[in-house]
């Protein structure tokens, strides 16, 4: 097969057209043959722009750009292996979900929920390996001292690694904490009633400054929950008069309370 042009110089339209030619050629070759591998590798190089585009969309999330591109390339190879030109679908449309899925799976399965230094990431792997080996040897979970001796490190290093390992994976707040509730049920939330308590505490001395009749009408209206008509009947005044007194009193309290905030 003749040499192909340098892929860096091939634009998107030419890459799409050249991919069609190569897929048709790939379909006619015996899988595993040197020519088959050459054509498939050419397709990979020709479509690496899809991988770079996917990485830009997803981001590297603290990982090496080259590592994420390599993971995306695995997805590209899988897409090439499964692609059927006879279905009438453009290869970029077919390949992108596979490439994106491979990258997202990599982040889900191998990256940390909380980013920690590379040294601690490697220490976690050493601790996991040592723990598995010592469990097999002793038939029980090893102590921190045993792990430290196995790895030839001090106890503080083991403690630091175990603490850092807590950042490897996160749990959903909807995960059950017990038989009747989830973790989210145990998280404190702002109490809307706190502001009301503060207001009532601030109002107490302001109400004490009111004339006795105004205090009495407030108590009948908001403590005894009497209607304005019932208050008027008890005090021998009209309902309209009661309304004016309440409006004036509330406006006075509101104005003083505002100045205190």
UniProtKB/TrEMBL annotation:
InterPro entries hit by this protein? RNA_pol_sigma-70_dom, RNA_pol_sigma-B/F/G, RNA_pol_sigma70, RNA_pol_sigma70_r2, RNA_pol_sigma70_r3, RNA_pol_sigma70_r4, RNA_pol_sigma_r2, RNA_pol_sigma_r3/r4-like
Entries under SUPFAM superfamilies matching the protein: Sigma2 domain of RNA polymerase sigma factors, Sigma3 and sigma4 domains of RNA polymerase sigma factors
Q: Which domain of life is it from?
A: Bacteria
PANTHER family, alphabetized: RNA POLYMERASE SIGMA-E FACTOR, SIGMA FACTOR F FLAGELLAR
What's the name of the protein?
Answer: RNA polymerase subunit sigma
Stored Pfam families: Sigma70_r2 (PF04542), Sigma70_r3 (PF04539), Sigma70_r4 (PF04545)
Q: Which UniProt keywords apply?
A: DNA-binding, Sigma factor, Transcription, Transcription regulation
**UniProt organism field:** Streptomyces alfalfae
Annotated RNA polymerase sigma-70 domain residues:
67-80
């Amino acid at each position: 097969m003749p040499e192909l042009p340098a892929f860096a110089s091939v634009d998107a339209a030419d890459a799409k057209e050249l991919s069609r030619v190569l897929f048709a050629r790939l379909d006619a070759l015996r899988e595993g043959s040197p020519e088959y591998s050459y054509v498939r590798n050419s397709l990979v190089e020709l479509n690496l722009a899809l991988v770079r585009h996917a990485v830009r969309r997803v981001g590297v999330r603290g990982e090496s750009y080259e590592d994420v591109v390599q993971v995306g390339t695995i997805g590209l190879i899988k897409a090439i292996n499964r692609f059927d030109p006879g279905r009438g679908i453009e290869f970029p449309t077919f390949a992108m979900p596979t490439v994106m899925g491979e990258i997202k799976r990599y982040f889900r399965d191998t990256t940390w929920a909380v980013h920690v230094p590379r040294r601690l990431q490697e220490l976690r792997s050493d601790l996991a390996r040592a723990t598995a080996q010592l469990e097999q040897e002793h038939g029980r979970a090893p102590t921190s001292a045993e792990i430290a001796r196995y790895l030839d490190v001090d106890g503080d290093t083991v403690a630091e690694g175990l603490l850092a390992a807590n950042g490897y994976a996160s749990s959903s707040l909807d995960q059950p904490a017990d038989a009747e509730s989830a973790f989210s049920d145990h998280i404190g939330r702002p109490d809307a009633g706190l502001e009301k308590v503060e207001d009532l505490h601030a109002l107490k001395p302001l109400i004490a400054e009111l004339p006795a009749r105004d205090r009495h009408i407030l108590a009948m209206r908001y403590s005894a929950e009497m209607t304005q008509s019932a208050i008027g009947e008890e005090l021998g005044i009209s309902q309209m008069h009661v309304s004016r007194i309440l409006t004036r009193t509330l406006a006075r309290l509101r104005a003083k309370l505002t100045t205190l905030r």
